[in-house]
TrEMBL record:
Position of the signal peptide: 1-22
The keyword Signal belongs to this UniProt entry's keyword annotation: yes
Superkingdom as given in the UniProt entry: Bacteria
Name under which the protein is recorded: DUF1080 domain-containing protein
Assigned keywords, A-Z: Signal
Listed GO MF terms: hydrolase activity
Species for this entry: Adhaeribacter swui
Domain 3-keto-alpha-glucoside-1,2-lyase/3-keto-2-hydroxy-glucal hydratase: residue ranges: 27-279
Transmembrane segments: none
Pfam families documented for this protein: 3keto-disac_hyd
C-alpha cells in the first residue's frame, strides 16, 4: 500500500510539473520597484522665465553648472505606493529625468500616467508637461533645455498625450491618417510620411491625431511600439501617431536611431508613473503593421 501511495504521489508531482510547463510565460519586464533600481537620474536647472537655450548664469555672469547625475536634489524623484504597487512621483521642480540603465530595441512599452497638482517656473501658466523619451543615446543635457539625451519624444502633456517632439538633433518621418475604423478605411486615408526635425524643412513637432487622455485625476494608459526604425504612439488603446525612419543628424550625415535608453522627464509639473513594463518584440505585430503599408 505504501508503494502504491508513493507511486501516486510521484505521478501527481510529475503531472503538476508537466502542466506548469504549458503555462504561458510572463514576458513583460517590470521596470519600476521601490528602489528605482533599474534607473539613474539627471538634473539640470531650475529654469526661469525668459530662458532662450543659453547656459544659465549667476548674478555675476558666471556660468552655472548643472546639478548632474544621480543627485536627487529636493527629492524631485520619489517612490510611493498605490495598493501595494510602486509609483514614481516626479515633482517637476527641477528640469531633468530618470533614465533606464539598459538600452532597449524592438519592444512594446506600457505604463500609466497621472497628473499631480504642482507646477513650477517657467511653466506655471502653461499646460502640465512631461514626456517619455525613447531611443535615447549619449550624454544628458544635449537638448534646448540642457536636460535630456538625444532621442525621440512621446509627449506627455495635458490635452496632448501622444504628440511627437524631436530631442536635440533627432529626426523622423510622420504619417497623417484616420486613426479609427477598420483597417481598410484607414489604409484608404493614409498620406505620405512627412520628414520632421534636424536636416528637414519642418520643425520637429507634430500634434497627435486625436485626444484620448483620461479625465483629470485618472490614470491614462500609454503604449509605445518600437520595431526597427518604426514607432507608434498609443493612448488608452488608440493609435495617435505613426512614425518611421527614426534617425539623427550629425555633421550633415543621417544616422539610424533605432535603440537606446528610456527617459521620463521632469519638466515643471508634478506627475506620477506606474505599471511601467516592457517586452521584446520579435516582429512588428500584424495589427499595427498595416499602419505602415504603402
Amino acid at each position: 500500500m505504501k508503494k502504491i501511495a508513493a507511486l501516486l504521489s510521484a505521478f501527481w508531482l510529475c503531472l503538476v510539473v508537466g502542466l506548469s510547463s504549458f503555462q504561458p510565460k510572463e514576458d513583460w519586464e517590470n521596470l519600476l520597484d521601490k528602489d528605482l533600481s533599474k534607473w539613474e537620474m539627471y538634473l539640470s536647472y531650475r529654469h526661469k522665465p525668459g530662458y532662450k537655450g543659453e547656459q544659465p548664469k549667476d548674478a555675476d555672469g558666471v556660468a552655472i553648472e548643472p546639478i548632474g547625475y544621480n543627485k536627487n536634489t529636493s527629492n524631485v524623484f520619489t517612490m510611493t505606493e498605490e495598493k501595494g504597487k510602486p509609483v514614481l512621483r516626479i515633482s517637476g521642480e527641477i528640469y531633468g529625468c530618470v533614465f533606464t540603465k539598459q538600452e532597449y530595441e524592438n519592444y512594446h512599452l506600457k505604463l500609466k500616467v497621472k497628473w499631480g497638482d504642482k507646477k513650477w517656473e517657467p511653466r506655471t501658466q502653461l499646460l502640465k508637461d512631461s514626456g517619455v523619451l525613447y531611443h535615447s543615446i549619449g550624454e544628458s543635457g544635449k537638448d534646448y533645455w540642457r536636460s535630456w539625451m538625444l532621442g525621440q519624444e512621446f509627449q506627455i502633456m495635458e490635452g496632448h498625450m501622444g504628440d511627437y517632439w524631436t530631442i536635440a538633433n533627432s529626426a523622423i518621418d510622420i504619417r497623417a491618417f484616420i486613426p479609427e475604423g477598420d483597417m481598410n478605411t484607414v489604409a484608404s486615408a493614409k498620406q505620405p510620411f512627412l520628414p520632421l526635425g534636424r536636416g528637414t524643412n519642418l520643425s520637429g513637432f507634430c500634434l497627435r491625431s486625436e485626444d484620448h487622455e483620461s479625465p483629470n485625476g485618472e490614470w491614462t494608459d500609454i503604449e509605445l511600439i518600437c520595431y526597427q526604425d518604426k514607432s507608434l504612439h498609443i493612448v488608452n488603446g488608440h493609435v495617435v501617431m505613426v512614425l518611421q525612419n527614426s534617425r539623427y543628424v550629425e555633421d550633415g550625415k543621417q544616422i539610424p536611431l533605432t535603440k537606446g535608453k528610456l527617459q521620463l522627464q521632469s519638466e515643471a509639473a508634478e506627475v506620477f508613473y506606474k505599471d511601467v513594463k516592457i517586452k521584446k518584440l520579435p516582429e512588428l505585430p500584424k495589427k499595427y503593421a498595416a499602419y505602415f503599408a504603402k
